[in-house]
Amino acid sequence: MDPFLLSQIVESRDLKQALLADESSLDTIQQACDLALSCYQSGGKLLIAGNGGSAADAQHIAGELVSRFFFDRPSLPAIALTTDSSILTAIGNDYGYEQLFSRQIEGNGRPGDLFLAISTSGNSPNIIQGIRAAQKGAIRVVGLTGESGGEMAALCDLCIKIPSRVTPRIQEGHILVGHLLCAHIEQALFADSRASHKS
Predict the structure, then answer these.
(1) E runs forming strands in the chain
(2) Which of 39, 98, 167, 193 is a plausible cystine mate for 44, CB 3.0–4.6 Å?
(3) What is the rounded distance in angstroms from the CA atom of residue 182 to the CA atom of residue 179?
(4) Are 186 and 70 contacting, i.e. CB atoms less than 8 angstroms apart?
């Protein structure tokens, strides 16, 4: 294999090994999984947002929750705030790009929901405004950032800082965490009913 391509695989492996070796990060990820589970157990929903590749991650995670992850089970409510072109262009035109997510959280969020805020830098203005709107609406916030945490680190209830400054590696870490959230929620809520259905 081309040495550059091989180096990309090695970097991705090393990132996961760094996460595994960081007890603080593992604890924060566990807390985030538990917070998301508690949100669903209390009748809430996930609101998810990001820009660019992080917007794709928001849609990916929402899709896993609304459809299925490992196995068939009832659908779970999750909204990617990145998908409705009419809403996005209306807000962008009328209020500006920085309000893309805050306006949607004001309209669609309810106390007890959870906002999953994704930004590799931790400084995306529209994500920061979304976090502030969530806080005003009694909506808890889990942030996914790079290693510095950016401005988000001080604003989120929990901030998972992927230990890298390289955007593709940070995004790989983010989707790993998204998959862990989905797996934890699905397993905790539906594994027993799945087992009893098979027996």
Answers:
(1) 46-49, 78-80, 114-118, 140-145, 158-161
(2) 39
(3) 5
(4) yes
Q: Record the tokens describing residue 18, joined without a space.
A: 């760094």
90: which 2 tokens? 């209306």
Q: How many angstroms separate the CA atoms of 62 and 46, rounded?
A: 8
Name the CATH topology of 31-189: Rossmann fold (3.40.50)
Report the C-alpha gap between 66 and 34 in whole angstroms. Answer: 18
Q: Is-contact 186 69, C-beta < 8 A? A: yes
* Tens of pLDDT, residues 120-174: 999 999 999 999 999 999 999 999 999 999 999 999 999 999 999 999 999 999 9
| Cα(141)–Cα(58) distance, integer angstroms | 14
At 47 the three-state DSSP class reads strand
Query: Residue 51's CB: how many other CB atoms inside 10 A?
Result: 20
Residue 84 CA to residue 150 CA, distance in Å, equals 27
